[in-house]
Amino acid sequence: MNMAVTRRLLMAVVGLSSLLIYLGAAYVGYVLLLPVWDSRPSPAMAGVVVIGTAIVFGVVSYWGATAQLKRSLDAVELRRARAPDVYQQLDALVEQMDIQTPRLLLAELPVPNAFAIGGGAGAIVVDRRLFRLLSAPEFEALLAHELAHLETHDALVQTVAYSLVQTLVGLVGLVLFPVVVLSGGIARSLALLRGDPSSWSRSWFGRTQRYALQIVAVLGVAVTLLILGYSRRREVAADDRAVEVTGNPIALARALKTIERASKPHFDPLRQLYVHGETDTELSRLLSTHPPMDERIQRLKERARHTKTIPRRETS
After folding, report:
1. What 3-state DSSP class applies to 268?
2. 247 by DSSP, 3-state: which?
3. Which residues form the Peptidase M48 domain (predicted)?
4. What is the mean pLDDT of residues 225-240?
């Protein structure tokens, strides 16, 4: 019995000490932040600074990641003299689009695929095997799809958007951090004073901490899903733009189908840039940067029923 009383008194002392420490820390933080709060800029100015900083950081991150990606690929530029027919296709497409002629880079990718990266006029990275796997119209449609991404700066826009939402989520987390620390500390201190340490999570302060953490987590998941959804919409838009400039939806559908068959389902850090992305389950589809391949192909076939295909070489 004496040991139980002693244990209860010890927990009360520890709880009271902890409570005083947390309250003292909260007061010191309040005193230190009060001058900062008094000299705070206007909400409009603060918003401009935060958004501007996030955009600059996103652009710098994008250019840095693009340069690093180019170095890691060990890609070589495809010279015009080696592939005049390919460049004839490229020039004809560029002439119809609001874009400078990008560099064509050849690389040994983990799977036969292609993707566009920015920087200046941009570049299109193509796996060497695609020249063997795709017919001329199919390769042209694939080029048009990647040019569409460069035309609207999709990779840059997505990187900047991610930087913005990451900054906003970080600001929310920063605002809620004192609430999380203080509410959790008070909850644990009061639970010790009551002699029931495990009850802290059921108290009002404990629930407040849990709700604050859930807000940050839900916000992070929500903005991530929004960005992934935007990425999937841009893939569909790139398909549409490719059909618009080539007039041949079936060629793009066949190119996608060929790439899908040639691809093997294994981990690849470049997958989010590819014209083709793997989607197996409903969850993986929700978390994918690309729409399901079957849906894209079916959509292109539907468009083919309403589009008269005119091969480019017959109109030149």
Report:
1. coil
2. coil
3. 82-303
4. 91
Q: Is 314 helix (H, G, I), strand (E, B) or coil?
A: helix
Listed in order, strand segments (DSSP E) in 63-212 are 76-77, 103-107, 114-117, 123-127
Beta bridge partners of 124: 104, 116
Region 240-249: mean pLDDT is: 94
Q: Tell me, what's the pLDDT at 271?
A: 52
Beta strands at 123-127 and 114-117: parallel, antiparallel or unpaired: antiparallel
Check: CB of residue 210 under 8 Å from CB of residue 272.
no
- Phi, psi (5° rounding) for residue 127? -70, 140
Rounded CA gap, 300 and 118, in Å?
26
Q: CB-hemisphere CA count at 13 Å for 274? A: 24
117 beta partners: 123
Q: What are phi and psi of 107, to 5 degrees?
A: -145, 165
Give residue for tokens 């796997």: 133
Sequence ranges of the domains in the chain: 8-73+136-316
CA distance 51 to 166: 11
Report pLDDT digits (tens) over 73-84. 888 999 999 999
DSSP category for residue 123: E
Whole-angstrom CA distances from 307 to 106, 151, 230, 240, 303 are 32, 23, 26, 12, 6
pTM of the full structure = 0.74
Distance CA 230, CA 241 (A): 16
